[in-house]
User: What shape does this take?
Amino acid sequence: VFIAQSRASGSHRDVEDEELTRIFVMIPKSYTEEDLREKFKMYGDIEYCSIIKNKTTGESKGLGYVRYLKPSQAARAIEECDRSYRAILAEPKNKSSESFEHDCYSNNMRQEPRGNTLPF
Assistant: This one.
C-alpha cells in the first residue's frame, strides 16, 4: 500500500488521523473485539478496534474496524493480513457512514458472470 497526499489536502496530522490509520475488515460473525485485536496486533500498535453490530439484536454483522497509531501499521495490516479479511482503508467517520462501507463491500463481493455476457 502506497500512501501519499497532496499539499492541498490539509495538515498532515488530520489526514494521518482519520484517513490513513483506520482499516475496515470482514470478520467471522463469532469474533469478539478481543479476537479482532489478537488477529491484528501483530501489524502494529492498535488504538482501538470495534465490531459493527445489528442495532436491534446486538449480533455482529461480520464487519469491523481496527485503528492503528501509525499509517505504516495500517498499510502493513492491509498488505499482510489474510485475504479473507478483505482489509481496506476506512473512510473517515465524518465523510461516510458504516452502512456506506458495508454497501461497498457487498457490491465488491458479488460474483461476476464468467464468459462473454455482452448482449450482441
